[in-house]
Amino acid sequence: MKIVIAGFDKIKGSAEPIPVGDYVCQIETCENQKSPDGKPYIAWSASIIDGEYKGRKLFWNTSLQEQAQWNVKAVVEALKAPFEPDGFNTEDMLGLQIGLSVTMDTYQGKEKNKVSGYFSV
Length: 121
Hints:
Blueprint: E1 21-34, E2 40-48, E3 57-63, H1 69-79, E4 97-107, E5 110-119
Antiparallel strand pairs: 1-2, 1-4, 2-3, 4-5
């Protein structure tokens, strides 16, 4: 069966990494997950909202293990999101803007982007 998509030949997008740099993004997902060995983490995704790479998505995880919770708090603070003394609601993160610093990493022999820092916008 043929799938018809108007302007399919003009669609931009790529799985190629974006250049190292800082990008203003909007949180799309913030999901509580568990690794195969049962360790909790948050899986995040965000879309770049301006510039040449507008619409490209970035993905990263933050561990919820005690020794790494500082990283989760850094994201929540950069989002200027509400939080309580004992935690936060993942739904409150959706749609908020955040600055993401992106670097390069190599995974299975391929270069890929890595979210390496967060800042408020």
